[in-house]
## 1
Amino acid sequence: MGIQQIPLASSGLTQSQLITAPNWTLLQTTSANNVTALHITGLSGYKRYKVFVSNLLVVANGDYPYWFLNNDLTNHIVWQNFSDRGSTKTVTGSAGLTNVYYMTTNGWRNDSYQPCGYIEINNADSTSAKQIESAGHFYSSGGNNVHFEGFGISVIAAPISQISVAMPSGDPFYMNQIYVYGAN
Amino acid sequence: MIKPTIKIVDVSTQEEIVREMNDEEYAQYQQMVADQQQMVADQLAKQASQNATE
């Protein structure tokens, strides 16, 4: 039996429904210059959000970003700083933490290298769980090219209207380029 | 006392504000730092305990 071909017109779907690739729209470009926290607010109307950052520079070695949604810092997403990539780690944070996103990396350092990464939130407009993906790249002062990536679930029961980032050390940081995208 | 600087980027209005933290934000900031310090202390204590038993 050959392959059955169903004409588009009889599939019952519109053309836009058949296209599954997100239609990413650049919402804003910005930067962070020696600030202690960055809040990207006013998010609405999209099912997906993506924040690209590059040239992340932290003030102190050992710093690493907390990403958090809707200003809920107790449920954060960690770009953790590790010097021993590949070893077994446990999730950091308070007991009962339910939406931790966790990854291993050689870490963000206080040097002139230019790490970049992104965080993406899917299902952002619903009141059910959000899917979170993140990845980044880092060139360590030891000469190692490090790629890291991870996946997580946020159970924040509200549409996402705010994405924030801060260093848990409380130190200020820099992000030379920040790109905020939305898509449906 | 000068509080830390915060940046707010509102994508709905394209407005960007850099200002000193307000009291509520500063309280959240202090909690974040305290949590981090506690986590580091817990990790150091755990490491010390493991070293003592080895």
## 2
Amino acid sequence: MQRCKILLFALQAIVICAGCRFEQEGTGPGKRPQVLALRPRDELEIGRQAFGEVLKQERVVREGAQVEKVRRVSERIAKAIAIKPLQREINLRVADYQFEWEYAVIQDDRVNAFCLPGGKIVVFSGLIDFVRNDDQLATVIAHEVSHAIAHHASERIATDQLIRNPLKRLAYNRDQESEADHIGLFLMTFAGYDPDEALAFWELMGTASQHGIRLPEFLSDHPNDARRYANMQAWVRDAKAGKAAFGAGRIAKP
Amino acid sequence: MSLGPGGPLFGSGGFYQPQGPRGPWLGCGCSSILMIMAGILLVFSGCLRLVGQ
């Protein structure tokens, strides 16, 4: 009888431990654990201030074909973010956050773009000249927007306080980049862009780097290798399959 | 993942399946092993009880 009691106690302990492990499937994208440093209103305020600084300090393109192109693509990506089943699919934490989607084109030959917390998109004119079509521009904008809706800036502040090892930090940053690739592919697909163009864009980037052209700054800490491309190929298939299921009305209830 | 007549349903995480060091797999593998062990122990303790009685 004593043995039974011990065994039952052990069983309870194991079940409790298992329960704890399940709880670690957290609140981040893909239900991964995610620690954030900023409250929703802090993110918005930081984004507003930083965007104001960018507009003050940089040469902003006010009108023309480039601005129209960025507006067109950015608005479609922002609409895709509002699709509730897509939010549930990725487990995006956007309900408690306010995103004020704004965009600016900066007169700068560098191939670059970024999205500030709160939804402020900044695209360099060099990137617009570099991409071959709207789908490729959507690849980059969706990637950058994914950083904002996945709260990567807030997470980086939190993890910088926790992780002292610079190599671990770099690995963490690369994981964020990979995650932005993944979310971005879904966003652009649901915005009606062709995700195969994302692969074409990264191939273009690979060719550019082989010919000695400096990689864009937004790729500086990317896992830019064959593995990344293989990941992207798999995610393109998933995004297309997800869009097909969504289009056919095969949607899980909340 | 939720399944419907035509395959997986969108919106339950079946299509967005991250693979890497910080995805939902963090808890899944270990949890599965622990749950299997819990099941084995449950059966084992039941058997011991039967033998004991």
